[in-house]
C-alpha cells in the first residue's frame, strides 16, 4: 500500500532542500502582504464603528484555532508526509483571498476559520528538520524566518502602490495569482522530505490523543525549567508584537485619512488668509 500511494504522488524537482521551503513561505506571505492596504479598507468599510475590535477578534479566533490544530496537523504529517500538509495548509490559508472582492463578510469569516489550517510554519519547520543535520538546523530555520520577514517587508509597500495606482481589484487578483502559483509550486516542484522508513509502520497508523492535544505540550514544557523560561520569554516577546501587528497598519491608515481630511478642510481657509 505504501509503495502504491508513493507512486501516485509527484516526486517534485530535485532533492528536498531548504530552498523549496523558502519559496513556499515567501510566496504565501508575499500574497498576504500585498493585501495589507485593501484589507484595511474593506475592514473599515465593513465594520466602521468597531474596526479595531473586529480586527482583534478575527486575529484572535484565527490564532486560537491554529493553537488547537497545530499538534494534530503535525502528528498527521508524521504519518502521511510533509508535502500533503504543505499543500493543505497553504491552500486553506490562501482560500480567503479572492473572497475579499466577492463578499467581505465571508472573507473575514473564512479568515477566522482558516486558523485551523494556518500552521504552514509548523509544517515548514518539520520539512526543514527532515532534510538537515542538527548542526545545520539553526541556519536553515534562520533562513526561513528571514525569508518570511523579507516577504512582509516588501509586499505591503508594493500592494499599497499598486492599490493607489491601479485599484484594489488588481491587488486582489495579483495576490490570488501568487497564491495559486504557490500551490502549483508545491504540487509540481516540492519533493517529499519524510522517507517512508521514518514514518509509522502502517499508512493508517492511529494518532493518539496525546499527540493531538495542544495542552499536553504545555504540560511537558513545565517539566523542564530551562525550556519553561524560554517559552515564557518568547510568549512575553510575541504578545505585544502580535497586538501591535494587528492594529498598527490600521492605525496608520486611519491617521493618514484623518490628516487628508484635515488638509482638505483647512487648506481653503489657509489659502484665503495668505
TrEMBL record:
Cellular compartments per GO CC: membrane
Transmembrane intervals: 21-40, 52-73, 85-100, 106-128, 140-163, 169-190
A Pfam family recorded for this sequence: MFS_1
Membrane topology: Multi-pass membrane protein
InterPro entries: MFS, MFS_dom, MFS_trans_sf, Sugar_transporter_CS, Tet-R_TetA/multi-R_MdtG-like
Domain named Major facilitator superfamily (MFS) profile: residues: 1-194
Gene Ontology molecular functions: transmembrane transporter activity
Compartment(s) of residence: Membrane
Major location (coarse): membrane
Keyword list, A-Z: Membrane, Transmembrane, Transmembrane helix, Transport
Superkingdom of source: Eukaryota
Family assignment from sequence similarity: Belongs to the major facilitator superfamily.
Name of the protein in question: Major facilitator superfamily domain containing 14A2
Organism from which the protein derives: Callorhinchus milii
